[in-house]
Design goal:
219 residues; mainly alpha; Tetratricopeptide repeat protein; TPR-like_helical_dom_sf; Serine Threonine Protein Phosphatase 5, Tetratricopeptide repeat
Length: 219
């Protein structure tokens, strides 16, 4: 599929959700929540359900543009900043290349801005996402990776959302990187038994598959 065709598909998806070509309908009181939910749903579809790497690259870049539109419309809402950051981080991971560093730096800035506005937003997701960046990116002089900062942020996320699937998964993944496998197993098991998130069934299913794979690697 050509990128232009994929653009059309994504546009049609958002039009189907809203009945218009715009992500945000300011006249509707729930439009921001609906827009964020649309980003979440499309992110999960791209990340977990598109097997073709080239299509995945194109789709996540289109979604990053959509997220940026929403952030520009609502620059003082932590939720929009968090989701633009998540999508940019995903784009960096999927696409790689020389543009990846710029994307993760931008994502870091978005997460930090979200924390300044409301660190409790989306159950502390900015802490989880920022912490995961700090242990996944290279350290100085290439990038800003810092495992001490990562652990501090991931632990903060767990104080806000101790039973959440994402904070437990990412802290478990961090602990694997640190060689602390017993602790990692405990957090993976907590993540696996985390309650379902309303409207996030696809993301939860995909994350649980990742958790099971991680646990198998520890056995």
């Amino acid at each position: 599929m050509k990128a232009t065709t994929l653009n059309q598909v994504v546009a049609i998806t958002f039009m189907a959700i809203y009945g218009h070509g715009n992500l945000v309908l300011a006249s509707e009181p729930n439009s921001l929540d609906e827009s964020i939910h649309a980003l979440q749903a499309e992110w999960a579809r791209i990340y977990y359900q598109i097997p073709d790497h080239e299509l995945q690259e194109d789709a996540v870049d289109i979604l990053a543009d959509q997220a940026h539109v929403l952030t520009a419309e609502f620059p003082n809402r932590a939720e929009t900043l968090i989701w633009e950051g998540i999508i940019l981080s995903t784009s960096a991971s999927i696409n790689g290349g020389i543009s990846a560093l710029g994307k993760v730096k931008k994502a870091r800035s978005l997460f930090e801005a979200a924390l300044e506005i409301d660190d409790q937003a989306l159950q502390g997701s900015a802490y989880t996402s920022l912490g995961s960046l700090y242990y996944q990116v290279p350290g100085w002089p290439i990038a800003f990776g810092d495992n001490d900062k990562a652990e501090k942020l991931l632990k903060k996320a767990l104080t806000i959302n101790p039973t959440g699937i994402d904070p437990n998964y990412f802290y478990g993944d961090f602990l694997v990187e640190e060689g602390r496998t017993d602790e990692a197993r405990s957090h993976f098991q907590k993540a696996l038994s985390a309650p379902d998130r309303p409207g996030r069934s696809l993301a939860d299913k995909g994350r649980r598959q990742e958790i099971k794979a991680a646990l198998e690697e520890l056995d």
